[in-house]
Amino acid sequence: MMATLPNGVLPGRPQALLCRLTRLLTVVAGLIVAAGCADDPVALLPGDISGTVRVDGVPLANVAVSVTGPVTKNGMTDEAGQFSFPDLSAGTYTVTVTNPDELQYEFSVTSETVDVTAGATATVSFAGTFKASVSSIDVIDAGSILKTLSITLDRPSSVVVEYWTEGADRLRVTSDANETSHDVFVPRLRSASVYDYEVTTVSSLGGFGAIFPGTFDTEALPSYLSDLRFQVIGEATFPLLMLSYKSVMIDTDGNIVWYRVDGKGTAGFARFPDGDFVFQTNQGLEVVTPMSEVVATLTEDDAAARTGRTGFNMHHDVTVTPDETVLVLVRAGTATVRDTAWVGDEIWEWDPVSDDLTLRWAASDFFSPDTDRGAGSRPDDWIHANSLSIGPRGNYLVSFFFLSEVTSIAADFQSIEWRLGGPASSFTVAEDAMEAGQHTAVEVSPNRVLLFDNGLGRASGELFSRGLELELDQAAGTAETVWEFRPRPDIYAPIVSSARRLANGNTVVGFGPSPGLRDASGPIATYEVTRGNRVLWQVVVEASTRRIYRSTPLYQIAGEEVVPTQLSAQAVAGGGG
After folding, report:
1. Which of 156, 282, 290, 566 is most buried, by CB atoms within 10 Å?
2. β partners of residue 406
3. Which residues of the chain have pLDDT under 70?
């Protein structure tokens, strides 16, 4: 005979089990339980959390997993990558997986929030990926200081390369492509040096992989560069200086860190947004990568065949437009006065992608040799354009050396905005400005023109050159000197030379001719000066070269950046999970 216990509890059966059975049967019958057993013991039953950890579908064993909430527990995955936390009180929990090897694996999510209910199991899984590993690294030589690391990975990833030598900055370059093969150019190397490097993979989530170290050597410079020496004083606010002498670049410590391997001499150059250079050479135009590879050309012979014109000469300067086409100065086009043909200048536009070539502007349409002539003008070289730049309104500034004039051409090339200096100046020019030839004219801001004032044939007879900035008052028709820089002692540079404004407001002024060239005083020197004319840095070129056509400050060769010691890959590798 079965004994009846209080509240209907059967002997040998826990009340909680009976209530769970009753609740299950009630749910199956489609009924709503309004009241459970006495004190609703189902609500007091434990719940569970379980799940898996996999990397690229492979179970990962011995991974630390924790749950925090009403209670805290820690555990590890088993050989099948599974974990389980039984007997948890009902409530909200955070499940966290700890990456066992941040250099080898990566998880996009390492924590999940789940709700545990009485008598039920909540599941959560974590999926990671393997980080790429370096299979091989080869050093490819393109020149004594032009090196490329050819890197092969075991799976697609981007890579970071850091490299350094004694006495130089630690530098970093990145290849962002998600590929298994990367050819990474490592720029700004010094000659005859031993470099250490470290290659690190970077996942799509930004995590660093393991570091793969190595070394490579740089060789001595080519013989035609071996006599170049640079005497540096002070510290510049920019890292690099391009010298238009066989296209050589130095760092501001006075080391040659880039050159064209073909040794071609150049005059003007400009850069495309992707970092490629376009050089004006004796043969025409060349687009050159930072690795010194020529990828597009427009020779004068090609231009002659295409235009049907002869006797022209691309010269002095180029600039890159917002459309990534190239504008170049061309000595061409004639104006005839009293049976004498005077050769002027034109602006041609070349598209390196389509190879289209278009005449955009001709001086002979706007100027006359009868009235627009200077002391140096001659029939075969009437106005001698020597610089071309794009202004703040999309206008084009051209410096005409023989006229001692800077002309602003409207953005559509159909009219002249103004003429500064020369025989038909739109402005009354203060003092002795715009009377003695100039180079590198740029409208650095609306109505502010920066140029190098050569001082050739100055009316006062004084022999000096300077960086000069003029402010144009369109309403009053005046041009006032607002800034100038003359080194002490004065340097007389009657030809070539440059003045370049930096983003920080400083100016880099380069005096280009060697002593004795066209009566120049020398030396060949470049200065960085503040707005208040404090000299921060200077370099003197000691070489047999006759001139440096221009000195142009740059901030990078191929996207390299200086790495603060605390931010090197060695310091942060493993920090990205």
Report:
1. 290
2. 399, 420
3. 1-44, 566-577
